[in-house]
Amino acid sequence: MTKSGILGSVAIAALIGAMTLAPMASSASTPSSPAEKAATADLNRKIADANAAEEARAKAQEAQYQEQVRQQAIQYEEQKRQWEQQQQQYLAQLKGSEANR
User: Fold this and answer.
1) How far apart are CA 57 and CA 50, in angstroms?
2) What is the rounded CA–CA span in Å between residue 70 and residue 75?
3) Mean model confidence pLDDT for the chain
4) Which of 37, 59, 70, 71 is at 20 to 30 A from 44, Cα to Cα?
5) CB neighbours of 1 closer than 8 A, spacing ≥ 6?
6) How many Cα atoms sit within 13 Å of 85 on the Cβ side?
7) Within 13 Å of residue 26, how many CA atoms lie on the same side as its CB?
8) In whole angstroms, how large is the CA radius of gyration of the chain?
């Protein structure tokens, strides 16, 4: 494509873009009606309420998870203590049986 052909294509694309944006710009500057403003405010409140509810739910889930982790750590420590105690008893039995030979 020649230089003038490229410039012509760019000019056409710019013209089409300007024609497309002009209606959008004019409709965007139209002030909202009171009903639209009220509906927007209501929707924003609903969204904010839903976000707050979801945040509270997530925090509750996190607290529940942390409690489960804490309980499992307690169980693990108890099992570990029991295992160590059993191991000591077993070693004591081995020493006792060796001494009796």
Assistant:
1) 10
2) 9
3) 86
4) 59
5) 9
6) 6
7) 5
8) 37
Q: What is the pLDDT of residues 45-69, one digit of tens each?
A: 999 999 999 999 999 999 999 999 9
Q: What is the pLDDT of residues 10-21, one digit of tens each?
A: 667 777 877 766
Could you identify the residue written with the tokens 């139209």? 30
Question: Three-state SS across the chain?
Answer: CCHHHHHHHHHHHHHHHHHHHHHHHHHHCCCCCHHHHHHHHHHHHHHHHHHHHHHHHHHHHHHHHHHHHHHHHHHHHHHHHHHHHHHHHHHHHHHHHHHCC
User: How many CA atoms does the CB half-sphere of 20 hold within 13 Å?
Assistant: 6
Contact 49, 57 (CB under 8 A): no
Average pLDDT, stretch 8-37? 72
What's the token pair of residue 62?
């996190």
Tokens of 60: 């509750």
